[in-house]
Specification:
Strand content: 5-15%
Domain Rho-GAP: 173-368
Number of helices: 17
GO molecular function: GTPase activator activity
Strand order of the largest sheet: 1-6
Distance between the termini: 17 Å
Helix content: 40-55%
Largest sheet: 2 strands, antiparallel
Shape: globular
InterPro entries: Rho_GTPase_activation_prot, RHOGAP6/36, RhoGAP_dom
Protein name: Rho-GAP domain-containing protein
Pfam families: RhoGAP (PF00620)
């Protein structure tokens, strides 16, 4: 086996990895991770699981709602857009059929007038099999109501697009990698700044008006960010989105654990941070990964450089330390937005947050990889809880590895490794 990206694991494997990471942290490093929730009734594991469960419906589409709900809204919008495209294709088919029929009828009228009555009897217009069939009483009715028909097709969409129908239902965990879960607003803000703001000096320090952009995202509009949008506004919008999340990007239940790694050094610090990252729900983990990737790209242009013609290209001054100072308090939050002490932070916590986020930015590529040893631990655990899925998971890895899997320093066929796991 080779190290693999965290997001390449199946949903079932990621759930098992969470359990393993929590066990290792509790047993070896952080006994305080066993602390209960505010009322003493929830373990941290239960709290993390609750992040992916259905919650009260919220009217905003993006800001101030749980991250999983933002992603669900994005998916519903994407499905709606796909349905609109299908409807438009159907409309074009209808228009083409009407045009063709009119041409044929005119040709028929010019040649044989006596056959017009036969032509106007019934028209059956059939779309693609998945769209079903549609008919009208006569071509005259269709022609007169074309605009209304097209409008109805463009506005209609199936009821199952409502994201609430898919939330809160008990389902089996998938054996395949789950969809990359990064909100549209995060992806577009990061991409915009990577494209237009790499060389902008101190781009996140200017506070500009972002009310219009925020309102458009919250209304569920398809907001496109291009060169006409200020990099400062987009950066401030991204910070505001992270700040207003009711469940912060790094859950508050892990706040103390993450901060405690600031006092560690070297491999121990990185190993602990990696286990803590493995605890995050997939949507939080994937979004954090994308954000750290973005911050790392921006930091590469902090220093001035020289172009091919010998001209100096000024740096953006956004070092890893500066980025950690600016974004850290929005990623690691102790209090919920709006609470009495929200935003208040002592010097020790502030310094620890900056240091921790620096490490995350510097080593994010390594931290979000799953080692071969951890993959084997996952397989061992699943062999105890879900033995029927082992063959499928090994075949998937078997194909990716070109025929054999490496374990304990040796190469084994997938079937042999299954036997070894059973006897281990």
């Amino acid at each position: 086996m080779q190290p693999v990206p965290l997001h390449s694991l199946s949903e079932l494997e990621r759930a098992s990895l969470q359990e393993i990471a929590l066990y290792q942290l509790q047993e070896k490093l952080f006994s305080f991770l066993l602390i209960a929730g505010p009322k003493g009734s929830k373990s941290i594991r239960q709290k993390l699981e609750s992040f992916s469960k259905e919650k009260k419906d919220c009217s905003p589409q993006t800001f101030g709602i749980p991250l999983f709900q933002v992603i669900a809204n994005d998916r519903a919008y994407k499905q709606l857009q796909e349905e609109v495209k299908k409807s438009r294709r159907l409309c074009l088919e209808v228009e083409a059929t009407v045009t063709r029929f009119r041409a044929e009828r005119q040709k028929s009228n010019d040649s044989v007038l006596g056959h017009c009555g036969v032509v106007s009897a019934t028209l059956q217009i059939t779309s693609a099999p998945s769209q079903g069939a549609m008919s009208v009483d006569s071509i005259t009715d269709l022609s007169d109501n074309t605009s209304k028909l097209l409008e109805a097709l463009q506005l209609s969409h199936p009821h199952e697009l409502d994201p609430r129908r898919t939330l809160g239902k008990k389902k089996m965990l998938s054996l395949n990698p789950i969809t990359w879960q990064v909100p549209r607003i995060v992806e577009r803000c990061c991409k915009h700044i990577e494209t237009h703001g790499k060389y902008t000096v101190a781009f996140v320090l200017l506070l500009s008006s972002i009310f219009k952009l925020r309102e458009e995202f919250d209304r569920g509009l398809d907001v496109f960010l291009d060169e006409h949008q200020s990099v400062h506004d987009v950066a401030a919008l991204l910070k505001e989105f992270l700040r207003d999340m009711p469940d912060s990007l790094i859950p508050r239940e892990l706040y103390a654990a993450f901060l405690s790694t600031a006092s560690m050094e070297g491999p121990v610090q990185l190993a602990t941070l990696q286990l803590l990252l493995f605890l995050l729900p997939p949507c939080h983990s994937d979004t954090l990964h994308r954000l750290l990737q973005f911050l790392s790209k921006v930091a590469r242009h902090a220093e001035s450089s020289w172009g091919p013609d010998g001209q100096e290209i000024p740096g953006n001054k956004m070092t890893v330390s500066n980025l950690a100072t600016i974004f850290g308090p929005n990623i690691l939050q102790k209090e919920k937005p709006g609470e009495k002490d929200a935003g208040a932070m002592n010097f020790e916590d502030s310094s620890a947050i900056i240091l921790v986020l620096q490490r995350l930015i510097e080593y994010y590529q390594t931290l979000f990889m799953v080692s071969p040893e951890m993959q084997l631990d996952i397989l061992r655990r699943l062999f105890q809880t879900d033995p029927d899925v082992i063959d499928y998971l090994l075949r998937r890895k078997h194909g990716a590895a070109g025929g054999h899997l490496t374990a304990w320093g040796q190469s084994f066929p997938a079937a042999t490794l299954t036997t070894l796991l059973a006897s281990d």
